[in-house]
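Problem 12. The chain below contains 558 residues. Write out its predicted structure in token notation.
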Amino acid sequence: MSAARSCYIAGLLLFSVVFLKNAWVSDDAYILFRSLEQLLEGHGPRWNPHERVQVFTCPLWYWLLAAAGTLHRDHYLNSIMLSAVCNVLLLWNLQRILAHAGLWLLAIVVLVFSQAFFDFTTSGLENALAYCLLSFVARFHLNREQLPPAKALLYGCMAAGLLLVTRHDLLLFVLPPLLHSFWCNRSAGSSLLPAALALAMPLALWTLFSLAYYGFPLPNTAYAKLGIDIPRAWLIERGASYFGTSVWRDFISVAVLPAGLLAGLLSRHAALRSLALGIALHLAYVVWIGGDFMRGRFFSWDVLLCTIALLYPLRDASRLRQRSTAALLAIAAGISWVLWEPPLVTPLRWGAEPFRMPDTANGVTQERHFFFHFTALWKALQRDTPLLHDHGWCQDSLEQQRQQLPVTAAYNMGFRGYCLGTGHIVVDLLGITDPLLARMPRHPADEKWRPGHVKRLVPAGYCASLATGSNRLADPETAQFYDRLRLLTAGEPLLGRERLLAIWQMNTGAYREQLARIQQGLVADALQGGSIQQQATVDCPLVELPPTVIEQLKKTAD
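Solution.
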């Protein structure tokens, strides 16, 4: 057996074993799964049964899961199988990009030690699909000479177009490479129109659908997370801390980011420089928005591309330079092993203390550690009871069903919403899945806010409005705004003249001043009122398990 074949077999086995051992699904993925259930039951791609709201940031991933759901209704297994397919395509593209068995194996070693990358090879989120599409973009961009220029541009634009309907903000990765590719092909004698259409058409079609169906061009999560009334300096501080929290817990990722970025920016290869510029733009964006509460999620894609940027120039480098880079990466992997448990070595029973908070710093948590005990693939395949039923948040929803409460409120939506079923209403006090609360201000007493997640002020009468189906909001101006919002999210017909006018007004800022007055009034009332808990439960009961049930769950947990 040749040395190259041995490297490929070893790398494939290593990646596969670590993938299967660490496969899991996050709480946030169950927000997506509940919306899938609404769709497959004929209600449409929504969250609660009474209104049209896009609660997912990943349209392409959503519709792939929906297609899989028509064949097999287990969204948990569907997400893991689709993630596996995406990762196989990623490995194939890495081989085509690096074109060197030893470098390919070295890339695999880096990735299986990277918490940021490997925590999200599954998770039920769109990261795996983005890995796959980014690798296609990198492949057709860096290896353009292997295809006719027009075809390389077209295929790269096709992958980038699909990437933009996977997550809109991933545009920052591909913008510099695409500009570079169009510039290089400007005088090639062939038309650039097919490539431009392949790039723009998926996003244009989805945006038109989103406007017509939901009333807004962006997902509700964008309005909830990017419109938070928090000083920019605080967000930038949190964004920098987002990377800092990983230094001692995910050392290899934090080491590869600057190394790969520097190698790409200083490269003599213009295509690689443009790819590195896209990475730099995205990293700056992550800092600008304050990062995320899931450690590593928002720079998992950067780790992948920085690994490519670091190893790609070594294809034609001297043996000494290749071995020196491999030695430095081996040292970084060793440090990661000593400081924290990288994905390669985390045990099957990792996080088996389900009621113990995982490692958290500045609101940033390793989500896989938090939920692995409940949603690990190995455990899901051997259990007899329904998945999630031993988790307290799921039990909260079962309690809501037992009490026959039509409307309740919660701060964590995934498990709760999914276990609740599609016929009940749950109000998201963080505003992530709620179009009205996404536009309400944060509670001034919320000092433990996390990036993208703040506790919202709830207008008096809101849950009563949901329970009765009529507008019971106490403040007249808020009630008027809610009527206009409801025209977008629940109005019929979709293309009726009044609704189309309301869509235009809502998205062009016609209600900006009115909304500002509503927000100021809520904050003023909150400063005179009680705690966050009291304010939230005026007419939105927070369903919580009795202490005796919680103690029983602790005793019966594995």
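Discussion. The first strand starts at residue 360 and ends at 361. Students who got a different answer should revisit the alignment rule from Section 12.3.
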